[in-house]
Amino acid sequence: MRVLQVSAELFPLLKTGGLADVAGALPAALAAIGQDVRVLLPGFPAIFAGLGDTTEVTSFEAPWGERAVLRIGRLAADGIPDGLPVYVIDAPALYDRPGNPYENRQRQPYDDNHRRFALLGWAAARLAQGLDPLWQPEVVHAHDWHAGLAPAYMAAAPHTDGPRVGSVYTVHNLAYQGLFPEWHFGGLGLPARMFQLDGLEYHGQVSFMKAGLFFADRITTVSPTYAREIQTPEQGWGLDGLLRARGGVLDGILNAVDEAVWNPATDELLPQTYDVRKPGGKPACKAALQQALGLAVNPDAPLFVLVSRLAEQKGLPLVLGGLDALLAQGGQLALLGSGEAWLEDAFRQRAAASPDAVSVTIGYDETLAHRLFAAGDITLVPSLFEPCGLTQMYGLRYGSLPLVHRVGGLADTVVDCALENMADGTANGFVFDTFDVPFFDRAVRRAFALYQRPTDWRRVRATGMRRPAGWQPSAEAYLRTYQDARRARA
Length: 490
Ligand code: ADP
Ligand code: GLC
Hints:
By secondary structure, this protein is an alpha/beta fold. It has helices at 18-32, 45-51, 92-95, 113-128, 149-156, 208-215, 224-229, 240-245, 281-293, 316-328, 341-353, 366-375, 391-397, 408-413, 419-424, 437-451, 454-466, 472-489, and strands at residues 2-6, 36-42, 54-61, 67-77, 80-90, 139-143, 166-171, 179-181, 201-202, 205-207, 218-221, 250-252, 303-310, 332-339, 358-362, 378-381, 401-405, 430-432. Strand 14 (332-339), helix 11 and strand 15 form a beta-alpha-beta unit. Adenosine-5'-diphosphate binds at residues 17-19, 21, 307-309, 336-338, 364-366, 369, 388-391.
């Protein structure tokens, strides 16, 4: 099937979070099961820089009259001999800005984000209508609010010369909705009837998220538990009613691990590789990291690692609240993250107070992220909510047992070291049920208790490292969803 993936980021070209990892891995996984996949991205500087040569496909006009050029390049990808074809929207006035793709230097969203991302959805819909005479998708798969208008534009002008094209919309995070004031609606080129409750209107605003949820033929989100959670008022961000109404076309498809990128047996970013049968390189990774970060080089100190955006979602106040107890038990913490200034400051202060036990790196560093999972004994993911979460899966794969709050994709991937799970051989980490420091503390306590029983620790770690984590089953689930979406439009 010809599938167009529409996304704002894609690893390795541009990444601010897990969306990029998924957008980077899914095309190759779909190609591996025989699908003809292309990708559409906004022409941010990092995208053009990473792609190298691109050629012009055609030019087109935005609904508000601005002209843009559609270019195509190829990205080296595992299992796709000539590389993954990547369409890029060349519109420098909208996209040629340094830094973060969504925010300016003051961390404020750009004033024209409605246009910057409407153009992404618009170009996707134009491709569905045959904008590229040489390749027309049968299904458009739009990711997150940035691409949310694609299904709306497709629903507004479904007519093409060929068969109608199906649309699939994936929610990676319902918390980021792409809301804009009503007065921007007029310039978007959508029929007035779409700006209503049964449409993309959300409390008087234009919601790109709701556009995707309302107009797509099929909806998915990134774990089965999150698919249920977003249908409740507690986690529905006001969209739970719509999600319940569309529950029949909503599925949770769990993210997976790109094994070409995240594999301790082949990872070139590590000082030593290792795997579940020969884990001997892991202590060497730990010692090297402790040394590099200025931590006490102590093989017996359980090393807790955390790689995260520093945002409310990620539950970092629990880590701050539980840190004294963690250190008192002889643990170490190594954190890599960036985000909200108050969290950056709070963690920096903790590192300054205990430099040989707490290391805090503020910034974005792909290499250090790999080294942290390899060095760590425990990966902390205490998120308040978590649609899927990838770092707990990287922790599992690298033998750094995840310690997580039982929500979303964390609940679907981590099994607590309770005695019955130990007996069944399913335990692979530590899970707490209530989002509060005492519950987090108890899970940390459990991690220390297991660490003191090396045979049990190694067994649990091996269970985690052996967890099947590849993309194939999820790619097959997406393919079934695409087939359903096409049938919906037939
Ligand atoms: P989210 O998408 O909500 O941020 P995920 O767990 O799905 O959470 O994905 C986060 C991705 O971003 C992972 O690949 C993680 O390793 C990476 N990451 C997060 N913060 C950093 C950072 N400061 N440096 C390097 N990688 C990071
Ligand atoms: C979002 C979610 C995260 C998920 C990622 C990729 O950023 O916060 O839980 O893993 O998207 O789907």
